[in-house]
UniProtKB/TrEMBL annotation:
GO terms for cellular component: cytosol. One of its GO terms (molecular function) is alpha,alpha-trehalose-phosphate synthase (UDP-forming) activity. GO terms for biological process: trehalose biosynthetic process. Signal peptide: none annotated. In the C-terminal section; belongs to the trehalose phosphatase family. In the N-terminal section; belongs to the glycosyltransferase 20 family. This is Uncharacterized protein.
Amino acid sequence: VTNAGEPSTKASLIVVSNRLPFVLIRNPKTDELERRASAGGLVTAVCPVVIKGSGLWVGWSGIHLKDPNEAIPESNPNDQTPTAGLKSEQVVSVNIDSKIFDSYYNGCCNKIFWPLFHSMPGRANFGGEHWHDYVTVNKHFAVRTIEALEKCLAKNQGSEKSPPIVWIHDYHLMLAANWVREHAEEKNLPCRLAFFLHIPFPPWDIFRLLPWSDELLQGMLGCDLVGFHIQDYCLNFVDCCQRNLGCRVDRNNLLVEHGGRTVRVRPLPIGIPYERFVNLATTAPKVLKTSKMQIILGVDRLDYTKGLVHRLMAFEALLLKYPQHKEKVSLLQISVPSRTDVKEYRELKEEVDQLVGRINGRFTTANWAPIRYIYDYVSQDELAALYRDAAVCLVTPLRDGMNLVAKEFVACQINEVPGVLVISPFAGAGEMMHEALLCNPYEVNEAAEVIHRALTMPEDERVLRMARLRRREAECDVSHWMRCFLKAVGALEMDDVGTTIM
Ligand code: GDG
């Protein structure tokens, strides 16, 4: 396997996502805008390719600017993150009225698409003007993307480059591609268009519940390439194109004919910056002071898709069925506050608070509490130390596009005696991480059995399973994902193509 580092392309990359790879903050003393970098895996992998190929990034900066022409600041000179090299001229910020943005983001994306795409239609609320605002915002993104494309083409005029790649991300922007294509064709601007969905794509009988299912499919089919994490989501999408729109499809080769063009659909499972997590785990100081207690770790945004309530009930069932774990095992659950503007998320917080209180009230002794519950964000160092020293990591979503926590846990398992990963088959990661223990979160008693098996697994079995899990994540890391994408879109120079998918 060759690890070619940053892939080089003959084309510039224009990334379009709801958020820019950094947020802007207004310094209250100087009233100047400043960048705060983001260190997510996606940014780590994608930003260097944008920078290297003189590309651009289109997105919202996290702040509603009164003057939309206010200049984007350059990065802070001390900034060591991957976005540091992204010059302000490579950033196209999208400014939208805050009320419309809230309706698009919370009303449409988080209250309709998020539950529906996670096959939880009962939680979706189709009412209101949210769809209208979603259309408005997507159109605005398309206009800004065309401006970015024009800028990119003007800059690279005369060089030997192939057409820029416009890469649109996620369920916030499912309509934008079609308008980008129309404008680009009208203005004779060459480009290749790609889309990647970070969440599951549901089966047809769920997807068709959306009143605007046709429009969404047509939006995505504006692309030349549509990527999902796993094959099942690809097949669901192809199925929907055939059954909703009557498109001719090839399920074996994942092709959809639409508007006289053939759209390629591809599974592109995302990875993590594996080496970064290994390094963090190697240097992070110990967080857990007592080594006698076995720690079961959970790390999630506080989201109803992550299966927190079921997980807590499974842990309670474990303590009832296997009381030998009392005072020996503790569940450390980190729940990061998320979407607190949305009622369902506030209600979930109440429910989890109460459940944690009830279970702790039931089992706590003078020297031990069964659950330690952190409702906060912990630093990456602390997170890596917890991943490294936990005996078991529970990744038990009811539904999840991929799930990066499972992969990060595995990367941080550098101790001689490794821990055990328990994973739900309803996460994209559960499709690939075959050596983990599978656990159906809906079967609470069975889940308790799986946790017991993880806690009591013989050392040699843990070593074997973890070694295989780590090998896969090391090879299929986020740079590998980036190369697979560029290869799929036909933009990779041949030197960079020597990678395997396991
Ligand atoms: C979407 C899809 C898909 C969490 N708590 C802390 C913290 N985190 C970091 C983790 C991980 C990330 O947040 C969560 O990633 P997930 O993949 O689990 O979940 P989503 O946010 O739902 O992401 C998902 C992903 O997109 C990528 O395509 O896998 O299926 O839903 O990186 O480390 N980081 C720190 N402190 C915390 O307390 N530092």
